[in-house]
Design a protein that fits this description.
It is a single chain. The protein is an alpha/beta fold. It has one domain (6-209): Rossmann fold (3-Layer(aba) Sandwich). 38% of the residues lie in helices and 18% in strands. The protein has helices spanning 6-12, 26-29, 34-37, 43-46, 48-61, 85-90, 133-139, 152-165, 182-192, 201-209, and strands at residues 17-22, 65-71, 118-122, 144-150, 169-178, 197-199. Strands 3-2-1-4-5-6 form a six-stranded parallel β-sheet, sandwiched between helices. α1 packs parallel to α10 and α5 (48-61) runs parallel beside α10. The longest helix is centred in the N-terminal third of the chain and has 14 residues, at 48-61. The chain is globular, with a radius of gyration of 16 Å. It starts with 5 loop residues before the first helix and ends with a helix.
């Protein structure tokens, strides 16, 4: 696709670049989070916060915007989480309090908190679906998105495709994402090359510092 080198983006318009971090939350990644409790740990995902932190710091230093999506299970009138049937079949261990708005589990992992400007709450795969992300990015005049987070074949892929439909220029960080298997991860990255660039975090940092 025609996505630009990040150095070129910065040269043209520093405010035009934004990082979107998809779902790097305590309930997904922390050893005391909901997914660890349910036995759905992801070793590759646990490595992401440090890599993403470096990217966030670099983009912030250049005047760019850093956003994060927070997957959220909203409570019903009795306080029980409203979970889609699809998700409940996949993750039957989810219970009251998991990913609840304002809870520790819903929060962004600690290393990333200082670098994030805006968080949006999401209820499905895409960070654009029923959130204010597009409004925020348009108001900040962001035209190029750098995407990372979990899972590669779910939240990241869906967000990339929704961004493409909204005419954003897209760069996906190959080792800034993770899935539950290398096969799913690599297949999703290959598919996302149809809507944007796919580069490593090291390559991104090199372009941002050029």
């Amino acid at each position: 696709m025609g996505a630009k080198n990040l150095g070129q983006v910065l040269k043209e318009d520093q405010q035009g670049i934004g990082l979107v971090i998809v779902d790097l939350q305590n309930d997904f990644l922390h050893p005391k989070g909901a997914y660890a409790r349910g036995g759905a740990t992801n070793e590759s995902a646990a490595l992401l916060p440090k890599r993403v932190q470096d990217i966030a710091q670099a983009i912030k230093s250049k005047g760019g915007l850093v956003c994060a999506s927070l997957f959220t299970l909203w409570p019903d009138g009795s306080g029980e989480p409203m979970i889609s049937e699809h998700l409940l079949n996949l993750r039957p261990f989810l219970k009251k309090g998991d990913f609840a708005p304002g809870s520790w589990g819903q929060e962004l992992v600690e290393p990333l908190k200082p670098w994030v400007d805006v968080c949006v709450h999401k209820v499905a795969y895409s960070a654009f679906f029923n959130t204010q992300l597009d409004w925020v990015l348009k108001k900040a005049q962001v035209k190029h998105l750098v995407l990372c987070g979990i899972v590669t074949n779910g939240g990241v892929d869906s967000t990339a495709r929704d961004a493409h439909l909204r005419d954003y220029d897209i760069t996906v960080l190959s080792d800034g994402c993770a899935a539950f298997s290398p096969e799913l991860h690599n297949t999703a990255l290959a598919d996302m090359r149809n809507v944007g660039r796919v580069i490593s975090c090291a390559e991104a940092l090199q372009e941002l510092s050029a």
